[in-house]
C-alpha cells in the first residue's frame, strides 16, 4: 500500500546504525580539530569564548545575570557564599520583550532592557545599603552569533530567531548595554558576555568539576567545552595562566556526508531562511523536528487515501506542526491514542482517523525523533572522542550538562539520546560518562562567570 511504502522508505532513509553514528562522531571530532587549526578551517567555527576560568564553587559575593535568548529575557541576582556554600539566595524575574522592539532600533531595545534591569535592582535592594559604593557586576547571556576579542565584549554578526534590528549589527552589544545602563543611572559593570551553551557549562561546572561540556537542545542546538589552551593552534594571543579556554563550537553548522539527509530535510533546507547552513541544527533541534514530521504527513496524505478527503491548508503550512505537538503524540499512552486523535484534528484538521492510521503517525514521530536523538548522541560522542574521554585514553569521570526545551520536555528524546551514547561508548566506557540536565544554566551561568572573572581581576 502507498502509505506503508512512504513509511518504509522513511524508516530506511532515517536509519542510524552504530557504524553510521561512529562515522558522524569521528567526523565531528575531525571538524573540531580543523576549526581549532585555523580561522575558517571548518564549518564548525570553534569560536574562542575568552572564558579562561570557570566557576569553582569558591566565588563569593553578589552578582547579577541577564539572559537574552528568544522572546523573553530574564534578570537575576545571586548571592554566592564562597567555600562551597554555593548559592545562598537567588531572585529572578522574567520579562517579555514587546514585539515592536525586536525590529526597532538598538537603543530602544537596550534602553528597555536597562530600564527593566534598573527596576529589578531597585526592588531587590530596597531598604538595604547593598551596593556600598561598589560597582555591581553583571554577566550577560546573549544567544546570538557574536565575534569576541575579550570576555566582556563582542560585536553582533547577525540576528536570528524573531530579531532584526539592523543598526545593532556590527556593534559591540556590551557597549550598547553599558551605555543604556548609564542613561538609567545604573552603576553596573558587564564582566562577561557569553551564550547559552557556555552558560550551561559554567552553571554545571560550579557544582561539579568533572563537567567537560555544556550542550543546548532547544529551539536550536549548540555546544561548548573546555579545551587546553595549547591545543588551539589558531590562537595568536598570549595563553591564559589557567591553561584552558572554553570553546563555543557553534556546532549547529556541522555537516558530514555521513549524515542521513532525506528528501524532506533537503526540501526544508532549500525553503529555509539559511539554505545550506546549520544542517546539523536542522537535523537535531526543536525548531525543525515538527516541521520534518509535517512534511512526511503531507506526502503521506498526497500519495495515499489514508486521511481521506481533507483540506490540506493546515498540513501545507510551514512550521504549523510544532515539536511540542509531536512530543504529545509520541508520548500518548492511551489505548486508543486519544491525544494523537485530538492533535491531528485540532492542529491539522484531520478528523475521523482509524486507530491503524494513528499508530502510523506515532511511528513516524518515533522514526524522526529517534534519528534526532541518535544524531545528537553522535555529536556528544564526537566531543568525548576529541577530548580522549570516550574511554580510549582518559578514564576519568566526565559529565556533559545539557539544557534546552527539547531535552527537558521530550523524554523519549532524552532517553534515546542517553541509550545511544552508551551504545556508542560501550558498557565499560559508559561507566565514566554522565549526562545530566542542567536546569537554568543560561540564566545563572553568566552571573557565575562574572563572579569568577571579577574575582580573578581583583586578585591580579
Ligand atoms: P530557547 O532554545 O529558545 O532558548 P528553550 O530551551 O526553552 O528555548 O527551548 C524551546 C524549544 O524546546 C521549543 O522551540 C521546542 O522545540 C522545544 N520544546 C518546548 N516544549 C516542548 C515539549 N513539551 N516537547 C518537546 N519539545 C519542546
Ligand atoms: Mg534558552
Automatic annotation (TrEMBL):
Coiled coil: none annotated. GO terms for cellular component: cytosol; mitochondrion. It catalyses: D-fructose + ATP = D-fructose 6-phosphate + ADP + H(+); a D-hexose + ATP = a D-hexose 6-phosphate + ADP + H(+); D-glucose + ATP = D-glucose 6-phosphate + ADP + H(+). Keywords: ATP-binding, Glycolysis, Kinase, Nucleotide-binding, Transferase. Pathway: Carbohydrate metabolism; hexose metabolism; Carbohydrate degradation; glycolysis; D-glyceraldehyde 3-phosphate and glycerone phosphate from D-glucose: step 1/4. SUPFAM superfamilies: Actin-like ATPase domain. Transmembrane segments: none annotated. Gene3D superfamilies: 3.30.420.40, 3.40.367.20. Belongs to the hexokinase family. This is Phosphotransferase. The gene is LOC123060383.
Amino acid at each position: 500500500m502507498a502509505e506503508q511504502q512512504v513509511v518504509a522508505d522513511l524508516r530506511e532513509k532515517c536509519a542510524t546504525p552504530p557504524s553510521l553514528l561512529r562515522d558522524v562522531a569521528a567526523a565531528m571530532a575531525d571538524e573540531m580539530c580543523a576549526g581549532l587549526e585555523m580561522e575558517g578551517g571548518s564549518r564548525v567555527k570553534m569560536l574562542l569564548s575568552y572564558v579562561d576560568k570557570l566557576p569553582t564553587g569558591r566565588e563569593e559575593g553578589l552578582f547579577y545575570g541577564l539572559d537574552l535568548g528568544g522572546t523573553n529575557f530574564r534578570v537575576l541576582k545571586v548571592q554566592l557564599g564562597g567555600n562551597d556554600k554555593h548559592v545562598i539566595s537567588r531572585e529572578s524575574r522574567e520579562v517579555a520583550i514587546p514585539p515592536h522592539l525586536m525590529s526597532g532600533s538598538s537603543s530602544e531595545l537596550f534602553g528597555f532592557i536597562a530600564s527593566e534591569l534598573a527596576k529589578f535592582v531597585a526592588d531587590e535592594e530596597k531598604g538595604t545599603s547593598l551596593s556600598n559604593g561598589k560597582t555591581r557586576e553583571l554577566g550577560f547571556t546573549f544567544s546570538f552569533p557574536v565575534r569576541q576579542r575579550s570576555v566582556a565584549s563582542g560585536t553582533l554578526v547577525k540576528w536570528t530567531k524573531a530579531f532584526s534590528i539592523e543598526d545593532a549589527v556590527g556593534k559591540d552589544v556590551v557597549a550598547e548595554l553599558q551605555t543604556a545602563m548609564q542613561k538609567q543611572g545604573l552603576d553596573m559593570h558587564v564582566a562577561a558576555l557569553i551564550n547559552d551553551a557556555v552558560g550551561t557549562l559554567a552553571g554545571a561546572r560550579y557544582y561539579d568539576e568533572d563537567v567537560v561540556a555544556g550542550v543546548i537542545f532547544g529551539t536550536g542546538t549548540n555546544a561548548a567545552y573546555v579545551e587546553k589552551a595549547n591545543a588551539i593552534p589558531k590562537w595568536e594571543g598570549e595563553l591564559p595562566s589557567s591553561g584552558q579556554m572554553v570553546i563555543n563550537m557553534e556546532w549547529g553548522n556541522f555537516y558530514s556526508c555521513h549524515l542521513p539527509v532525506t528528501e524532506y530535510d533537503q526540501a526544508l533546507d532549500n525553503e529555509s531562511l539559511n539554505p545550506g547552513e546549520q544542517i546539523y541544527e536542522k537535523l537535531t533541534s526543536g525548531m525543525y523536528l515538527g516541521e520534518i514530521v509535517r512534511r512526511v504527513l503531507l506526502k503521506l496524505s498526497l500519495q495515499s487515501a489514508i486521511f481521506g478527503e481533507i483540506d490540506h491548508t493546515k498540513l501545507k503550512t510551514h512550521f504549523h506542526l510544532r515539536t511540542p505537538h509531536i512530543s504529545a503524540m509520541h508520548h500518548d499512552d492511551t489505548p486508543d491514542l486519544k491525544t494523537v486523535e485530538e492533535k491531528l484534528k485540532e492542529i491539522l484538521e484531520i478528523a475521523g482517523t482509524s486507530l491503524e492510521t494513528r499508530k502510523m503517525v506515532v511511528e513516524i514521530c518515533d522514526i524522526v525523533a529517534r534519528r534526532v536523538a541518535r544524531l545528537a548522541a553522535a555529536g556528544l560522542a564526537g566531543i568525548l572522542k576529541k577530548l580522549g574521554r570516550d574511554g580510549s585514553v582518559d578514564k576519568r569521570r566526565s559529565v556533559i550538562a545539557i539544557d534546552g526545551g527539547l531535552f527537558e520536555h521530550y523524554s523519549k528524546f532524552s532517553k534515546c539520546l542517553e541509550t545511544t551514547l552508551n551504545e556508542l561508548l560501550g558498557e565499560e566506557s559508559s561507566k565514566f560518562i554522565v549526562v545530566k540536565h542542567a536546569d537554568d544554566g543560561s540564566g545563572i551561568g553568566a552571573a557565575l562567570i562574572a563572579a569568577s572573572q571579577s574575582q580573578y581581576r581583583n586578585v591580579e
